[in-house]
Amino acid sequence: MKKPVIANSMKEHIERIRRATQPLREQIINHKVYTVIKDIEDLRLFMEYHVYAVWDFMSLLKALQNNLTCTTVPWFPKGSADTRHLINEIVVGEEADVDLQGNRKSHFELYLDAMGQCGADTSKISWFVDVLQSTRDFDKAFAASATPSHAREFVEFTFNVIGSNKDYLQAAIFTFGREDLIPAMFLSIINDIHKNFPGSVDIFKYYLERHIEVDGDHHSHLALQMTANLCGDNEQYWNEAEDATLLSLQHRIALWDGVYEAIAKKNTAGLTVVD
């Protein structure tokens, strides 16, 4: 499939955002959290935080689909057909990908499978989703599930952007803040854990590989075109998009800080003093 072609005037705006966000992206890619993931127990704790980002990514995706296409009945044409095509193609890949056995799964469901395989605790995220689905009250869901504070703040930021109903901001943080931030260091760590604990992280390893193959390549090009379509020649939109992207990356760093602190605390508590 051909990659979307972005007009030169839009490329200048995209490059400006990339330059502005590069220092934060470097902080994420080189974050110290990766240095403390030594074994499967550390990975479990990482996943128990990260799963909230996987879930709210799906929510951000569906917010874009709701804003850019007609998802109600009766149906009427809405917006640009090109933009509808872009978001619908991304939704198919994220909401109905395939697992290791070829079964259709959303990336969130695939992530839960990966957590279950390696022994990570899925009770908090499952309880959060269940309470939110029944009450539509985020405060109740966070409290009932004892969501870690850093994960809560990350989700709250995402839903503040969703609540803005500004599709160009949603597209910006989706495109520049979420799609391709998995460093090679992390993949190396997962490969080492996979060797040491065969049969425990196969699904997670597959999830990461699919994320890189689908999200980091084809979907990132689609998302860039979508953001360019929505911001157009509106300078204010591009400025707001840049600001929102910077905030989204700052919240990702804060989430990683929280994971680092949790793993470091666990490891320190596990130390024994020998006289």
Please outline the helices and strands.
Elements lengths: L7 H22 L3 H4 L3 H29 L12 H15 L1 E2 L5 E2 L1 H12 L4 H13 L2 H8 L3 H15 L3 H11 L6 H13 L5 H30 L3 H35 L6
Helix pairs in contact: 1-12, 3-4, 3-5, 3-8, 3-9, 3-12, 4-11, 5-11, 6-7, 8-12, 9-11, 9-12, 10-11
Report the end-to-end length measured between terminal Cα atoms. 65 Å
What is the count of β-strands? 2
Give the ordered list of helices and strands: HHHHEEHHHHHHHH
Rg, nearest Å = 19 Å
Q: Overall mean pLDDT score? A: 90
* Anisotropy-based shape: globular
- State the helical fraction: over 70%
Based on the structure, what is the oligomeric state of the protein chains? single chain
- SS summary, helix count: 12
Q: Which class of secondary structure composition applies to the elements?
A: mainly alpha
- Taking pLDDT < 50 over at least 5 consecutive residues as the criterion, the unreliable ranges are none
Q: Main sheet: which strands, in order across?
A: 1-2
Q: Can you summarize the main beta sheet? A: 2 strands, antiparallel
Q: What proportion of the residues form beta strands (DSSP E)?
A: under 5%
